Give the backbone structure.
Amino acid sequence: MKFTKMHGAGNDFIIINMLEEQLDEQDIPELARKLCARRTGIGADGLMLTAKAEAGGDFRLLFYNADGSLGEMCGNGARCIARYGYEHGLAGQTPRIETTAGLVTGDRITATLYRVRLNDPSIIDLERCAEAYCCAYIELGCPGIPHAVVLMDDWDIIPRDELFKLGKKLRFSSAFPKGANVSFVKTVGVDRVKAITFERGVEDFTLACGTGSGSIVTALTLKGLVSGKNVTVSMPGGDLFVSLDREGNSVFDIYLTGPTCKVCEGEINFF
């Protein structure tokens, strides 16, 4: 079975083309767990599979987290799969990607720089209390990808094990019925923020989170802390750039731009 490994700002994925490979969808969760294992598999934050389009897109994206759970969508993953689709003849320079959360469109800016339009928010709650913390709760798409945005000026000096415990606690908080990806955020300049995300399904911090970046800029724009135009989100794996449109308390047309990297291609032969 052929695979490609890619990453977007350190958020890494294994890609399998189901248009060429024969896979039973009921076997994919176990496959995701095995392939994404850092020590015994290839290692990745998630598994992405391209499948035949069903609703007018160029192709369909199935996204599975490292723990085998089905994810609604992934922003950095969508940027990587947009490049994969272009380079493998599945789509042109402006791919239309069907995801569980809705249609995602992409743009090839350079050979490695890709932009995607994230799903519009279906839920925005700027004042949700969770475990004594005030969070902004955002769901992108429908069904929505749940994100909690926690403004915390000292998050990057808190010992990692303590921040991990807090991220895990908030991720499973009853304030978030579907659980949540939890981003700790601080502003570090004009239209520049620093953040890290504890991701649901990975159950750890990742080097970058695309939908998390979109949710962060959504929340901070509505709070008046950033302009919403070409906002830099600095994450451990690198910088991502987010622009959006706002009308009152509504946000739409969230665009995520950032680098993609093709790490390797090969064949899986240990199953």
Notes: The chain has four helices and 18 strands. The longest strand covers residues 121-130. The mean pLDDT is 96. The CA atoms of residues 133 and 150 lie 8 Å apart.
